[in-house]
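Please go through the protein record below and explain what the tokens say about the fold. Record follows.
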Amino acid sequence: MLTSSLNFIRTGISLMLPIVTVAAFTLVSSPAIAEKCVSVEENDLDRNISVHCGVTPSATLDQDGRLWVAFVYDQRVYVSHSDDLGRHYSESVSVNAEQEDIEHNGENRPKIIVDDDHIYLSWTQKTSPRFTGKIRFSQSIDAGKTFEAPRTINDDNLFTGHRFESLYLTDSGHLYLTWIDKRDLESSISQGSEYTGAAVYYAVSSDEGKTFSQNYRVANHSCECCRIAIAPQGPENITILWRQIFGVTTRDHAIAVLTPNGQTLNMHRASYDEWQIDACPHHGPTMIQSSLSGDYHMSWFTNGDAHQGIYYGRFSFDSNEPEDVFQVDGNAGAGHPYLAEFNKTLYLVWKGFDGEQSLIQLIKSTDDGKSWSVPETLITTAQGSDHPLIVSGKNGLYLSWHSEEMGYVFHELTSTQSAKLESGE
């Protein structure tokens, strides 16, 4: 159960803080990408699957700067890598030899972590049209040449909802898997009692993915279908941020610290938007820990009575309250923000809409979130597109994004030069 401090109600919208200007750069569509996907479709079953033709990609940079991308194509998770930051890619390797109905939408996608020659992957396997699933895990110990047979990490053996997993590796080597779980709903139904929403669960591997702990429950009454954000809390603990149900229908956010041995610490309410909705918004939050203050930078979408649109705020476990809250984008269609930090500068990207096309937009802060730049449009498309993500590397930050028009886009955000994604690059 959440502590009583999560039941407080606060109203009012914070004013926009001072802004700092920032130079823009341009991304240009590449028609060659569509041609690559056509050629893939015309080949036989042993074809090399292009990263541009898959969906819901996730990416990471390893210690040597090699780019790794996991994506879904034809009921399989594939992994490909690039040694030149996305200009050329290796042949893709299938993770699951047997096809699975893999959840692939903006809030559900495979996750990938690379640690030396060790590659960890997680995803959600869809087991019926009725929002059921399994949390799946696989790994490679030979730098992605081969992958172990996938395992199911949820340990309840129930035909129910286990979805929206997130994966995180701490500095101490503890591998955390968190997800949204409906086992407690099933138990309540069997006992004839009422249960709202789902629950947040997690498991931990302390031996490089060989085994996982039992499943630990974090909180009852979470929202049923929103991604969980993870950031470090010291060398072995993590902090998670998720959408929680407060009272009967208020769907705002909660924050807590998790330990490798199953303890949940410092659970508090993290947003006070007063969103009254008896449904799932499919809008999960994003969060990173500040390198300057140790506080947590957060961004999220809401359509509450107090706030509407995309918001930014910061949370400190000293005050246990969100601070510096302001509206990033209140326009219709704006959603799915993502945060990252590089060289003491915060970057926040999100997906906007101008009535005709989707916009990937960016703002920056050079003072730990106290003020932000004016919004900068990075790229637009009138066709279908994914949510934007940011990949952190030792030399910079990169936009990771997929669209029907341009395929997979991986482009540096931290360059001081104006940059273009030209045809064939």
User: Anything to note?
Assistant: Residues 3-31, 41-46, 416-425 have pLDDT under 50 and may be disordered.
